[in-house]
Amino acid sequence: MDKYLVSQFFVYCAFGDIMKEKIISIDQGTSSTRSVLYDNKGRYIDSVQQEFDQLFPMEGWVEHSPDQIWDTVIATLTTLVKRNELTSSDIASIGITNQRETTIVWNKRTGQPIYNAIVWQDRRTASFCEGLISHDKEIQKKTGLTLDPYFSATKINWILNNVDGAKELAQKGDLLFGTIDTFLIWKMTEGRHHLTDVTNASRTMLFNIKQEKWDESLLDLFQVPISMLPEVCDNVYDFGVTKILGGDVSIGGVAGDQQAALIGQCCFSPGEVKSTYGTGCFMIVNTGEKPLFSENRLLTTIGYRLNGKTSYALEGSIFVAGSAIQWLRDGLDFFEDSSETEKLAQEASSDSKVLVVPALTGLGAPYWDAEARGAIFGLTRDTGKEEVTKATLESIAYQSRDLIEAMKKDNASLDKLMIDGGMVANNWFCQKLANTLTVEVTRPKIIETTSLGAAFLAGINAGLFEDIEMLRELKATERSFVPEEEVEDRYLEWKDAVTKVLTKS
User: Fold this and answer.
1) 418 in a structural domain
2) Which residues share a beta bridge with 118?
3) Which of 30, 277, 292, 360 could disulfide-pair with 287, CB 3.0 to 4.6 Å?
4) In a domain, 419, yes or no
């Protein structure tokens, strides 16, 4: 063999992994799946996105097809790799981030889901939750969560009690549960690994966030066999090897979408806070090594766990944000593309008194009213799509103000808000947010920071990034918005409108 070729062979054997300098993030969201390509500096290269069907079989029910979700993962990955002329040998690691509480149960022998994925927005278990209200304090003390249909536990219970033969199969150990991350890991590794990460586990309402393990008393309460549950891992972990790209590629990082955004925004110090505006709005503040339990109806959750060290967070969840814009687009045909909302808001009458309460799937923090329904107030003959669009955008800013006020009452300091998600491409909305919150709002160059956070985790696992502190050097701010006008009166009017749709005091 030629001496040069021999030398190159040994170089490849010694340093082959170093040549793998690309990272792929699978960002499996509520309305679409994206596969995103990054380089070894965390710089965005390319992405492929594909929407999938939103299923509403009954009022308050929201479902997805697990098979369709899997198809979108395959399709976006395949297109991304082909378009960038890559092979598996170019990919250092894959990161996964996902819609969190959404629940899938499947038969571990056949690999087939026994029911559609029940989405985090789904409210079918509201009456079941009401029947367990006496356990609310116990649940909050252990999980940091409030008793609500939002979380996975009641969804699992519903599937076991409403799908023919499910309870019997579960008792025999033939059923597996997973949030979307777990389902994807299982599919990508051909059933070899049934795993989740600590952030997704913390959103099931079955995980004790202080002991950091599945809680036996909660499993009994919700009648969920422990055999269904995945092993819980750090966010940076060897989640298995997939051949989905043709050759072996490791899955090296996993985090629920909002925690991934926390990491993508580099909120690694207590007091640093981000808010993601996607299908819903999720505001999270890093609270450090000890959990801070809210007295103002916010959620205590795990922000991330690296090398066995846990950082906790306080979270406010708004169920409807971008999905309200989607409703204006698809339900009311106000526009063809969501980017048009900025122009419509600018064109709206400044004298309009229209107020929107977007309780399309109930209200999240701090109200936690599953039965509340959306409403529009202040309509006149002059009201057009411009005014309704503007009021809808304003409502999302006002809901964000609700979360900020609750965080302040819980002694979480805030002098700057880091924002991300598809909605923040709208400059009008960002300025309205700064005016409403009366704090500086900063937007990063990469607004889809959920996928970036997953890429960071996968990159740490692959040895491309030394640690999380190194990530701060990779993050770049694109624009800051500072308060320019007073909106206090308008916010109070909106708060009054909310009281008219609440079903709980």
Assistant:
1) no
2) 63, 103
3) 292
4) no
Query: What are the angstrom distances between the C-alpha of 330 and each of 48, 49, 51, 447?
Result: 22, 18, 13, 24
> Across residues 205-222, what is the average pLDDT?
96
142 falls within a domain: yes
pLDDT (tens digit per residue) in 424-436? 999 999 999 999 9
CATH no. for residue 35? 3.30.420.40
Please state the φ and ψ torsions of residue 274, each to the nearest 5 degrees. Answer: -130, 160
* The two structure tokens encoding residue 73: 């993962």
Residues linked to residue 489 through DSSP beta bridges, in sequence order: none
Reduced to 3 states (helix: H, G, I; strand: E, B; else coil), residue 480 is: strand
Instruction: Report whether the peptide linkage leading into residue 366 is cis, meaning its omega lies within 30 degrees of zero.
Output: yes
Mean pLDDT of 490-505: 89
Angle at 297 between CA 420 and CA 215, to 5 degrees: 95
Residue 114 domain boundaries: 18-255
Q: Which of 186, 188, 218 is nearest to 202 (CA)?
A: 218
Q: Is 92 helix (H, G, I), strand (E, B) or coil?
A: strand
Which band of pLDDT confidence, cut at 50, 70 and 90, is reported for residue 13? very low
Supply the pLDDT for residue 475.
72
What are the tokens at 340? Answer: 């048009």
Percent of the chain that is helix, strand, coil (3-state, to 5): 40, 25, 35
From CA 32, how far away is CA 54, in angstroms rounded?
A: 10
DSSP 322-345: HHHHHIIIIIS---SSGGGHHHHH
Indicate left, alpha or beta for 198 from its phi (over 0: left) and psi (-120 to 50: alpha): alpha
How many domains does the chain divide into?
A: 1
414, two tokens: 């805030």
Query: For 148-175, what is each residue's pLDDT tens digit?
Result: 898 999 999 999 999 999 999 999 999 9
Helix (H, G, I), strand (E, B) or coil at 277: strand
Matching residue, tokens 């006008």: 485
pLDDT at 318: 86
Tell me whether residue 54 is in a domain.
yes
Tokens of 293: 């339990």
Return the axis-axis angle of helices 449-461 and 257-264, rounded to nearest 10°.
80
Longest alpha-carbon distance in the chain: 85
What pLDDT, on a 0 to 100 scale, did the predictor assign at position 19? 58
Residue 484 near residue 431, CB atoms below 8 Å:
yes
Average pLDDT in the chain = 90
The rounded Cα 445 to chain-centroid distance in angstroms is: 20
Show the tokens assigned to 44. 């965005």
Can you say whether the dihedral through the CA atoms of 240, 473, 259, 114 is positive or negative? negative
Q: Which of 362, 350, 354, 365 is nearest to 392 (CA)?
A: 354
